[in-house]
Write a structure and sequence with these properties.
alpha/beta
């Protein structure tokens, strides 16, 4: 049975271009940029490092990594989608002072890379979407050198809040849709346990928050997708979904709109 999560089979989606555009829109928000770069410093990623990102998408994180490691470093991105890799090739061109970015087609559970190759291996907003998280983390550990770092960051849909005049309806949509879409919607909180189970030491946790008080374009699209999925999964009817979306209008106009979601980042060290 196929998964309802579109990121499991991205190239088969009819709206693949819109999904890729959404990655770039999310990555470009000020809050997302801040929490992503804070996590990369937490891991940490250092100048000269050889870094792999598993599930690299259109290359939002890769571009940050290339600037952080500099010309002495190396950055590799792996993704199972040909469509996002094509987008990444367009968007990750050479930049002054940056490492060159190499892109590989591959499955995170069977990485096409040699063991012990990287100083840092990362999976950012990817564990939510994979059917076998431990299989992917095991592969990430395999390709990391002894003493190297493995880092995971994910959102957690159990730690999300938005203002709305109908809280009960909001809970039905925001809690119900992730349960239909994902096997583990509360993915962020499980990350430290995954790293410890994979045998890593010195595991640390960083908690951060995505915040929007103006209904930025990415947040608007996120809420619209939630409303559409709520109708698809039979949680509400189409008129109710539209009423829910309309409920945000007055809040935005009054400066009373708040949307937050927790992000959890975990990092550990591969034993020597």
């Amino acid at each position: 049975m196929s998964s309802p999560d579109p990121w499991r089979a991205l190239d088969a989606q009819p709206n693949v271009a819109a999904l890729i555009a959404g990655l770039e829109a999310r990555g470009g928000t000020r809050t997302q940029t801040r929490l992503r770069r804070r996590f990369l410093r937490f891991v940490p990623v250092r100048p000269g490092d050889r870094v792999l990102e598993v599930g690299c998408g259109s290359g939002v994180v890769l571009r940050d990594l290339a600037a952080m490691v500099g010309r002495r470093g190396a950055v590799v991105g792996v993704d199972h989608s040909r469509a996002v890799l094509a987008a990444a090739r367009r968007l990750c061109g050479p930049g002054g002072g940056r490492a060159r970015i190499a892109l590989r087609l591959g499955d995170g559970a069977r990485l096409p890379l040699a063991a012990g190759r990287f100083d840092v291996t990362l999976g950012i907003t990817v564990m939510l979407h994979v059917p076998d998280p431990m299989g992917v983390v095991g592969e990430m550990v395999r390709v990391t050198r002894p003493g190297g770092r493995v880092g995971l960051q994910d959102q957690d849909f159990g730690m999300m809040a938005v203002t709305h005049p109908d809280p009960a309806l909001t809970d039905r949509i925001l809690d119900g849709v992730p349960r239909h879409l994902y096997e583990e919607p509360y993915s962020g909180r499980r990350l430290p346990g995954l790293l410890r189970q994979a045998g890593l030491g010195s595991v640390r946790l960083l908690t951060d928050v995505f915040q929007d008080t103006t209904l930025e374009p990415w947040t608007k699209t996120f809420l619209e997708r939630r409303a559409t999925n709520a109708v698809t999964f039979g949680l509400v009817g189409a008129p109710t979904a539209q009423r829910w979306l309309d409920g945000f209008t007055a809040l935005v106009a009054a400066g009373a709109f708040v949307f937050t979601m927790n992000y959890y980042g975990a990092a550990g060290v591969k034993p020597c």
